[in-house]
Structure formats: structure tokens, C-alpha cells
Amino acid sequence: MNDGKMNSNSLEAEYMDITNKNAWPIVYQKIGRECQSYPYTCLEAKKPQNKQLNRYRDVNPYDHSRVILKRCERDYINANLVKMDRANRKYILTQGPLGSTVGHFWLMVWEQNSRAILMLNKIIEKNEIKCHWYWPHGIGDQHKMVLNDVKLTVEQISEEDCSYYSTRVFRIFDMESSESREVVQFHYTTWPDFGVPSSPVAFLEFLKKVRSSGALEADVGPAIVHCSAGIGRSGTFCLVDSCLVIIEKEGFGLVNIQQILLEMRKDRMGLIQTPDQLRFSYQAIIEGAKRFNPEWKEEQKMEESIYSAVAEDVEEEAPPLPPPRAESLTKAPARPLPAIPTSASLGNLNFSPTQESSSSDEGPPTPPARDCPTSASSADDEDDEPITSPVESKETTETLRRRRTRELAERVTAMKRRARDAERWHALKRSLYKPLTITFGFLLAGIVIYSYVKH
């Protein structure tokens, strides 16, 4: 990493130059224009029998890199294999499963020998369903999912709540070969759609957890990475991870973040959806390169970054309603980008103290916390708060998890009920339209005839 230390100023200088000129929308649009010249096609995605399998009409997999299902009536799924050879990384980026594609999703996990699923979205965001609940609703054999169309069963065998993300372990059983395999799901629950996490350190701790599982290594199948569309948050994760690996291998001086993003976009369209996500990627890469360097802890162990808190148990507010996903590739955002908080390890990459954030997406920093805290409180409140035993803390976490699950189920049920009521109302209007039209026609004809006879 010596070369990285010597050349780190170049990447930081690029970051500061873009920031000082407020040029993130311009840089982002430039990347989008370069991608418009790509000659890749999406013919399979646009076939009539496959259109209904896409969550969004304008987010389709390229033909040359799409994942092909082998043991299925249809070989199509909205997913691409994204390769970054310099980092020795492979990812499968895909959309959040639809109700009709849950079997396809698990078949892809099985056939690709993937050992991890990285879920970067919540099921419901801003009262919209962003992803179908595709895993069992409980632990144990009694909650096992049986997917007869693809000859697989999925059983959840454990779950761990780490405040702003959860981990779940599933056992997939192949009914044809009688083989089974365990897969870990890392579920990041506080990353808003079209937005960024409130803290790069929280994100980097999540990345470190994923890396420590071995799920990103070359000797296993590619990790499945998805959000709702499989391009924004998913692209941000893969860009940061790949760039950090390249920095570890080659140093700061040989990393061109924009070129690496352009390279990744050759395998899946539209990776990273906003200038804010691009800026956050720079910030996380610079911060992560220092934190992942073993020498950094020795040099900085007495210093404390305000990013050191990783508790993100408060639900982040999503940004204003976004433009259509295709337009997000070329148009600038309608509002200024938020300011980046100060970080000790980022050195001079800070805004001046007088500059305030213009966005509510990024809240104030939280105090230091453990890797998997169940609650967070300020130092001023420590004397006032009672000490909670581990048993009570665990019970509180379980109660909170059950309440969130129940509330989620109630919200989904309410949305389905509203949809059914709306459909009944439209059906009633359609059934009344023809009789009312005929009756009105007869009345109008009668009036005309009466007027003619009278005169």
C-alpha cells in the first residue's frame, strides 16, 4: 500500500475538484452520454413472453451478459453477470424478484453456485412494493418454501439482527439431485431508493461483513446483488467493492473510478442512478482504502472519525420523487447535492463549516457504536438510562422484529385491499357504461322525434 499512500492525493484532489465546482451532475451526465454509444442489445428482454418478467420497462438486461436459466421452461431472468477482471470479481446484478419470478430467482442462485444474496432495499419503500418477499416467513421446516416449478425447496435456518442490516441463512434443497447448499442473505435495511446511506463507515462495515463471509471470493459462484431495479444501489456496492480491491492490489494511482464504472456498465445498463450515488462512491472508496489498510489503524487508533458510528436503526427518509429510471441516466437532479459530513480520516476532503446541507437524506452523525448494536444513545443520556441486561436486550430486539414484520404484513394487506377495491369500482363502472349509454341514446332520440312531431 505504499504506492497507494504516495498517490492517494490524486484521487482526493479529483474528488475535491468536482466538489468545489459543484460538477457532480455534469460528471454523471458525461458518463451517461458515453454509455449511449454502447452497441449492446436487449432483444430477449423485449420479447412479448418476457416483458411481464421485468419489474421496470426501461431496465433490461443486455443479451451478451444476461444470466441464462438452464432448468426452467423459460431461460429468461432480468439479471446480468458483471465481471471486473482487474479485481478478480464477479457479481450477478438483478432486480428485486416479482411474485411470478421467485422460483426463477432461487433457481439462478442454485445454478450459479452463489453463496450469498446481497439485498440492498426494503420490501416496501414510500408505500410502494419494491420487491416481493421471496424467502420463508419463519425459521424451521414448517415455514419451508416448496418451489415445484423449479424443483427446489428453501428453508430458513437462522437470522441475526445487526441494527441497520440483518443476516439470514437459508438451506436450498434440490429435489432432483437430493443435494443441498447453504446461502447467506445480507439485508441492508436503511439505504433509501435513489439515495445513499447516511454514513460511509456504516456501509463499509457492511461490506467488511460480506467480505469476511467469503461470498465475494473467486472460488465460489458470483454473489447475487439486488435492490429494486438492480442498478442504483446495487451498482454503487459493486463499484466501491471493486475499486477497493484494485487499490489494495495496485494502489491509488492506477484507479480511475469513472472508467471502472463505464467498464461495469458494459455488462449491465445504468449502474449508479444519481450524481449523489456517484459522489458517495468516491467518498466510500477514499475512506475505505484507508480503513481497510492494516497500517491505518496503527496510525489513526487515537483519532476518531464522526463516521465511527455504524448504527443506522432509524429509517432514513428517501429523497423526493425521482425521475423515470431511464431519465436518471442523463438528466441533472432537480435539487443541489447535500453536503458531506466531516471525517477525520478524509483529511482535507471536507466542506467549510459554513456550508449547510440542502437535503434531508443525510441526518446528523451518530455516536460510536458496536458492530451490531441493538440501540444507540448519546453520552449525555448514559446516566439517565437504566442498564439493560443481554436477555432483556434480546427480548426487546425480538419484540421489535416481530412488530416490524406484523406491521409490514398489515401494510401489504392494506395495499392489496385497496387494489381490489379499486378494481371492483372500475369493473362496476365498465358494467354500467353500456346500459347508461344505450338509455341516454334512447332519451336523446325520443327528444329529437318529439320535437320534430310537435313542429
Automatic annotation (TrEMBL):
EC numbers: 3.1.3.48
Tyrosine-protein phosphatase domain span: 11-288
PROSITE patterns reported in the protein's UniProt record: TYR_PHOSPHATASE_1 (PS00383), TYR_PHOSPHATASE_2 (PS50056), TYR_PHOSPHATASE_PTP (PS50055)
Region (Disordered), start-end ranges: 313-405
Listed GO CC annotations: cytoplasm; endomembrane system; nucleus
UniProtKB keywords: Hydrolase, Membrane, Phosphoprotein, Protein phosphatase, Transmembrane, Transmembrane helix
GO biological process: anatomical structure morphogenesis; negative regulation of ERK1 and ERK2 cascade; negative regulation of receptor signaling pathway via JAK-STAT; neuron development
Biased composition (Polar residues): 342-361
Any GO molecular function: non-membrane spanning protein tyrosine phosphatase activity
Name the record gives this protein: protein-tyrosine-phosphatase
Naturally occurring in which organism (per UniProt): Parnassius mnemosyne (clouded apollo)
Lineage: Eukaryota, Metazoa, Ecdysozoa, Arthropoda, Hexapoda
